[in-house]
Amino acid sequence: LANRLNKGHFYIGGRYIDLKKIVSPLLALAGESDAITSIGAASAITSVVGSMDKTFEIVPGGHAGLFTGSQAVKTTWVVMLDWLKLRSGALVDHCSIATSSKPLIGELTLLRADDE
Question: Which residues contact 11 (CB under 8 A, 6 or more apart)?
Fold first, then answer.
């Protein structure tokens, strides 16, 4: 994990990039059989961004297979859809997410409105 990205800052094209400036809700995914990016490396993004609303999920699949594998539509895509539904339309008071006093990791079910 000793790379610049996991330290939260790096340069691209001569511009300084500070990941703490990312404050929008974040869904980070890792493939449980990914041979390129370890689960630890993938999860590190949650500790370097400025977002209060951060979610990290381990899903079936490898590096690309977590999105394109034969089961992705039943696994990864469902995780992404559920995550988006919690943050879309009338289901969410967007101000309450942005002003939360602590990260909402593991507490996202508290934001769910009555089941549809």
Answer: 4, 17
The encoded tokens of residue 102 equal 């602590």
Cα distance between residue 73 and residue 80, in whole Å: 10
Per domain, the residue ranges of the chain are 4-111
Among 61, 63, 56, 83, smallest CA distance to 72 is for 61
Q: How far does CA 93 lie from the centroid of its chain?
A: 19
In angstroms, the CA 105 to CA 45 distance is 13
Pairing outcome for strands 15-18 and 9-12: antiparallel
pTM of the entire structure? 0.69
- Half-sphere exposure for 54 (CA within 13 Å, toward CB): 18
* DSSP state letter for 53: S
- Give one word for 102, left, alpha or beta, with left for phi > 0 and alpha for psi -120 to 50: beta
Q: Mean pLDDT, to the nearest integer, of 55-80?
A: 95
